[in-house]
Amino acid sequence: MTRKIELFRRDKTLERLPIEEREKQMGKKLQHLVKYAYQNAPGFKERLDKAGVRPGDIRNTKDLEKIPVLRKDDLVRLQKENPPFGGYLAVPISDLERIYQSPGPIYDPQRRPMASDYPPDFGKGQVVMNTWSYHITPAGLGIDQMLRDMGCTVFPAGTGNTELQVQVMHDLKVAGFVGTPSFLATIIKKAEERGYDFKKDFNLRWAMVSGEMGGDLLRKMFQEKYGIFCLGGDSYITADLGRIASSCDKNIGMHVGTDVIVEIVDAATGKVLGPNEIGEIVVTPFDEVYPLIRFGTGDISSLIVEPCTCGRTTPRLPKIMGRVGDAVRVRAMFVYPRQTDEIVSRFPEIAAYQLVVTRPENRDEMVMYVELTGELDDREKWLESLDKDFRNVCKARFDKVEFVARGTIPAGEKRIIDKRVYY
Ligand SMILES: [Zn+2]
């Protein structure tokens, strides 16, 4: 018997409520969740007791800050000490339908079914190929369930074996593909190598592709060259927490689901940061099976709080900018390689770069070493716009740029190097 405990399904009306109204409702659900978890998950009770926080102290989402962040490393350790779930499972293990394992290793109980974001009749009666992995990790089975709920007929393809996938996609007249954009590109390429005209000989009409950075170019290619309609944009999904955010058709950031609370915190102190400030994503899922309250994902982003033009008022994550360990803190601001890559991509004249942080006379100094592809027309103007973009994106500035000869910066080296010595 599977007990379906669902405190909070994806609620479409909540997404469009005035922000304050939603906060109020989320606060009520949170009070309930914290009390429930305190009574049923001994690991959570211990964490709260240790921090001197009582369940009654958490009355709204702002109060969450009182609870120490649960790091992934903590969870690995807790699970080792107290297997399999480290005292965080709030139901008997026999109530679970499935158990997964994600890298760590961490055991994950199956809980919330993933709700579809698509119109009720979308995909109904069509054959869909699901190329997410079906074993150990939750992606394959979770999406399989969602597709079947949508009324699709699923071919559980799993990963790998491209030859077979091409054959099946052709023979079954597969209409929908689910998986990574790069795997779909591989399948198309393989089909073309075998002499097929993909657009004519195959029936693929739509693809639900995610899970990779920079999938936008491939999505564009699928749509324009092959007429494959690409559903949704980016999603932010983790093995521990499931889907946290996904983009709307405006595609300006990923909307945080109404079944989670997302905070952006200073990874060093756990302090909550303001809108647009960059820090670690900390997630509280409304989940009574496995209440990982204030789970530190180790991923870096910020929150856009202005309502979206699509009508939703939920906060958005612009994108995932990196992992906590990748950042270098310079004069109290974190600088991430993803940010600097983004800036540099706007300057085609840069062939390679590296930021080096040193600490002469007890003061942080950041020098940007740059290899150029050729001569610059107006060096002053160019440096000015580089400086401006850098300040805008990183909220920090470099002290100077040093131009170095081509081949000076070793390929594959870190883009930001911390060489500071503290006395
Ligand atoms: Zn939107």
What does this structure look like?
The protein has ten helices and 22 strands. With 423 residues, the protein is of the alpha/beta class. A hairpin with a 3-residue loop joins β9 (235-238) and β10. α9 (337-345) packs antiparallel against α10. The longest helix is centred in the N-terminal third of the chain and has 22 residues, at 19-40. Mean pLDDT is 89; it is low at 1-9. The structure holds zinc ion. The site of zinc ion has 6 residues, from loops.
The gist of it:
A hairpin with a 6-residue loop joins strand 19 (350-358) and strand 20 (365-372). The protein has 10 helices and 22 strands. Helices cover 27% and strands 22% of the residues.
Features:
single chain; 423 residues; 5-stranded parallel beta sheet; 10 helices; 22 strands; 27% helix; globular; binds zinc ion
Radius of gyration: 24 Å
Structural class comes to alpha/beta
Distance between the termini: 62 Å
Largest sheet: 5 strands, mixed
- Could you tell me the number of beta strands? 22
Mean pLDDT: 89
Low-confidence stretches: 1-9
Q: List the total number of helices.
A: 10
Percent range for β-strand residues: 15-25%
- Percent range for helical residues? 25-40%
Chemical compounds bound to the protein: zinc ion
- Assign an overall shape: globular
